[in-house]
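It is worth pausing here to work through a concrete case rather than discussing structure prediction in the abstract. The textbook approach is simple: state the sequence, then state the predicted structure, then interpret. We follow exactly that order.
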Amino acid sequence: MRFFWLCTAVLALTTGGNLLVAAEVNTEKKNEAKPDSEAIIGTWVLESSDRTSDVLQGDGQSVEVTFGETSFQFVVLKDGGKVLEISGTYVIDDKQTPKIFDVTLTGDGGANMIYAIYELDGDKFRTRFRDNNGPRPADFESPASDCQTLSYKRKVDSP
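Step two, the predicted structure:
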């Protein structure tokens, strides 16, 4: 959100001759973009997947992922109740091209790594990863039957 402050100063002196001085100052506070490590924090709702999945897109289901500073919680909801919950940690690197998104899932079976790429643009977040812990995808455009792309929108009441 941009804030504009407009200040107008008018000085009128009527003694010793009519002198009118007007000054306009426009101070615009720029809304500098947050780094991705801050912008990702909050809750995101799955908008689309390039694959059909009963887990992700079943009837009456919604998927939310909530990111903290280094941890996340992935939840599938159906009729208000949790169907599936996965937690873990993540690391992003927005200096790479494409941007890197590495996820570590931890559970009873040990740790599972997912090497992904991502794009973050305002209230839109997109990630692409390869099945079965495969190597990181090179980009979002290359066709690959073993890659999946998930697109999220920031939840309305999320920071």
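Step three, interpretation. Residues 1-31 have pLDDT under 50 and may be disordered. Strands lie at 3-13, 19-29, 42-49, 61-67, 71-78, 81-93, 99-107, 110-121, 124-130, 147-154.
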